[in-house]
Amino acid sequence: MVNRILRQKSLVLLMFVLGAALAPGANAQAKKRAREKQPEDKPSQGTKPATAPEPSAVPAPTIDSALANLKLREIGPAIMGGRIDDLAVVENNTDAFYVGAASGGVWKTTNGGVTFTPVFDSQPVSSIGDLAIAPSDPSILWVGTGEVNNRQSSSWGNGVYKSNDAGKTWSHLGLDATQHIGRIVIHPANPDVVYVAALGHLWGPNPERGVYKTADGGKTWNRSLFVNDDTGVVDMAMDPQSPDTLYAAAYERRRAPFGYNGGGAGSGIYKTTDGGATWKKLTKDLPEGDTGRIGLCIYRKNPNIVYAVIENAKGGTFRSEDKGETWKKMGDTNPRPSYYSQIIVDPNNDLRIWVLGANIFYSEDGGKTFNNHFVTNKIHGDFHTLWIDPADSNHIIAGCDGGLQISRDGGRAWVFDNTIAIGQFYEVSYDMQQPYTICGGLQDNAAWCGPSRTSFVEGITNGDWYRVV
Asked: Is 452 helix (H, G, I), strand (E, B) or coil?
């Protein structure tokens, strides 16, 4: 039986080889007969031979044309966060708030952080410096682009944007060359009056920096405060009871490929009492000499009380009880000021203050002493923004390099809100599996890998990603 099968296979193989060998000759004879049957094509007398049409010019490909048919899809992850620079909360409905990311745009929640929607993805920039909601109309939201944390990897922006419908649509309202916006403050009763703290270029001088003011909702701008081409304004605070009184923190800084110069004679605290028509530099009881970054905060129940954290050889935490005319140094606390310099006073207790850093520094005595272990180390560090509910000081939202954290017990315990995909990947790569795996290293969040696709009906989830370093 086996021999018969082998003989049949050998016969089939022999026929295949003979067919392959005879085919070229047979094909050649068939082609010769076909040529003999066809008349020779000759042009008729008095006519010219037909010429083939010239090929039409094909436009050179561009990046846009090459990517025109490619559609990006979100694959996450949100299991780890990314740097959050600012928060804006609707105070009469604290379930609604916005998150501004260093390189992830603006996100909105209306259910206290259970879900988020990106509302800024259609704009040409994704680096956010500050967010501000008009106190008199929560549907008006301002966004200042370009983070102000001075890292080598910090992205710049292209000015300010405004939404009149709670983030559904946007208008770009200029200040393009400011690149980095540190703060936006809005008049409590007139939403058309807005001040912008513009820090200016990080890597070089430029005149588009200082404090800018609009009185017509952003149609026109006036540069209210200007120090010099190397000094911008990084922070600003408005007296809620006397909104023509404002404080501005000027900051002279420059980054170069070989280092960072985070201070100079241009830095300092400036004050206006006439809506920015004139400014004076505050100096009494404040440290002299080269000064770096400064953070400001006003106690909303008594705006005579103003706090500042000042980067200086003799700097630290300062408190004024007469609207900045005189100051008292409370202590030396001011962690890594070029990257943080944020001070927040509890809206219901002027002695309870928070200074942000790799840890949160917490004080119950106005800054004389601090506890930097009050906030558990179980959550990610590097805090850049913190909001305290004026109606309930136990309700706190914090933004850090690891994303969004929420507390309901005054900061003793926190919930990590891992529903925003804003991880900052420094580099990504992939393997040759099917489906292929994507891996990447993140800013302050290790290295992670995840699948490019999944058969799960709800798509790729946080659980599909895993840490490798």
From this structure: coil
Q: How many CB atoms lie within 10 A of CB 48?
A: 6
Contacts of 294 (CB under 8 A, 6+ apart): 234, 235, 249, 250, 251, 267, 268, 269, 308, 309, 310, 311, 341
For residue 330, CA distances in Å to 42, 296, 352, 367, 404 come to 105, 14, 13, 5, 30
Question: Could you give the CA distance from residue 288 to residue 293 in angstroms, rounded to a whole number?
Answer: 14
Return the closest-CA partner of residue 382 out of 364, 405, 363.
405
Identify residue 43 by its one-letter amino acid code: P
Burial class from Cβ neighbours inside 10 Å (0-12, 13-18, 19+) for residue 332 reads exposed
**pLDDT-derived band of residue 407, with 50, 70 and 90 as boundaries?**
very high
Q: Among candidates 465, 395, 421, which has minimal Cα distance to 101?
A: 421
Tell me which H or E stretch contains 4. Answer: helix 2-37
DSSP secondary structure letters along 402-438: TEEEEESSTTSS-EEE-------EEEEEE-SSSSPEE
The predicted-structure confidence for 175-198, as pLDDT tens digits, reads as follows: 999 999 999 999 999 999 999 999
Q: Side by side, which strands form the sheet with 383-389? A: 383-389, 392-400, 403-407, 415-417
Backbone angles phi, psi at 8, to 5 degrees: -65, -40
Task: Render pLDDT for 46-60 as a digit per residue (tens, 0 to 9).
Answer: 555 556 666 677 788
Structure pTM? 0.84
Tokens for 140, please give them. Answer: 């008006």
Q: Is 73:393 a contact under the CB 8 Å cutoff?
A: no
Per the CB < 8 A criterion, the answer to whether 200 and 179 are in contact is yes
The Cβ-side half-sphere exposure at 2, using a 13 Å CA radius, reads 0
Where would I find the beta strands (DSSP E) of 191-332? 194-198, 210-214, 222-225, 231-238, 246-252, 254-256, 259-261, 268-272, 280-282, 291-298, 306-312, 316-320, 328-331
Mean pLDDT, residues 115-143 taken together: 97
Site of tokens 């996450």: 76
For residues 336 and 344, give the distance between their C-alpha atoms in angstroms, rounded to a whole number.
Answer: 16
Strand 437-442 versus strand 425-430 pairing type: antiparallel
C-beta separation of 253 from 200 below 8 A: no
Q: Do residues 447 and 469 make contact, with C-beta atoms less than 8 angstroms apart?
A: yes
